[in-house]
Design brief:
Oligomer: single chain
Helix content: 25-40%
Strand order of the largest sheet: 1-7-5-6
Structural class: alpha+beta
Number of helices: 6
């Protein structure tokens, strides 16, 4: 039988970058990315709410990832916090050479000046609050992967046509957002397994995943594909 194994791994963020890229995003680019989304994020909040998202821009892609959410009042609902985090994770800057660049943004329910709202350093006026970290129903994620065993096997079987001894590893990395969308996906493959990787990526991207809570969650799904044992001698 074909051996197919998987695991879930919470990922850090690292990727090769080009030397010609700037070391980090300019302050203006980061502010512009946040300002473009602020009016949408404000609609998540009541007039007395104030939510600060803390996270980073990823160098390889320029994407913003929320790591923590802080609130000025315990009365601010979790759904409001999640809504703000979801909106602000749409922020993008041009790719840069550093692995990541920390960035903080505060959204106020009441209308205030942009100079107060737009800060890339920590907002000292916001009192300490417990962090809201990215969480997800791991059982539901595993169930989704297990349900695709047949489809993943077909990816491998199709690639073996004319290459019966084909074997190797495919690792699919997905970013699952707070609204259940796949906001990032890449397949890393061993030699000769590119076709399998592209197919596996398509299978997993098309699924309806459970929503992350608090912030996006990154997972890696490593698969090892080997020929059936009865083919070993051919």
């Amino acid at each position: 039988m074909m051996r197919l194994a998987w695991a879930l791994v919470l990922l850090g963020c690292a990727a090769p970058v080009r030397a010609m890229r700037p070391r980090g995003p300019s302050r203006g680019a980061a502010l512009a990315a946040f300002e473009a989304l602020d009016a949408t994020a404000v609609r998540c909040l009541g007039p007395d709410d104030r939510v600060t998202v803390e996270g980073f821009f990823e160098g390889a892609t320029g994407r913003y990832f929320v790591e923590r959410v802080g609130v000025a009042s315990p009365r601010t609902s979790l759904s409001a916090q999640q809504c703000v985090a979801n909106v602000m994770e749409r922020a993008r800057v041009p790719a840069f050479a550093a692995e990541r660049s920390e960035a903080v943004w505060t959204v106020h329910g009441a209308e205030v000046s942009a100079a107060v709202r737009a800060m890339l350093s920590a907002d000292a006026s916001v009192g300490p609050a417990g962090p809201v970290l990215g969480e997800i129903d791991a059982r539901a994620v595993l169930a989704q992967v297990r349900a695709q065993t047949g489809a993943l096997r077909r990816c491998y079987d199709d690639a073996r046509v004319g290459r019966p001894s084909l074997a190797g590893r495919v690792e699919v990395r997905l970013t699952l957002s707070v609204d259940g969308r796949v906001t990032g996906a890449v397949a890393n493959v061993s030699r000769g397994m590119r076709e399998v990787g592209v197919c596996a990526l398509g299978v997993l991207r098309a699924l309806a995943w459970p929503a992350a809570r608090g912030a996006s969650v990154d997972f890696a799904f490593p698969f090892q594909f080997d020929p059936p044992r009865d083919d070993a001698g051919t």
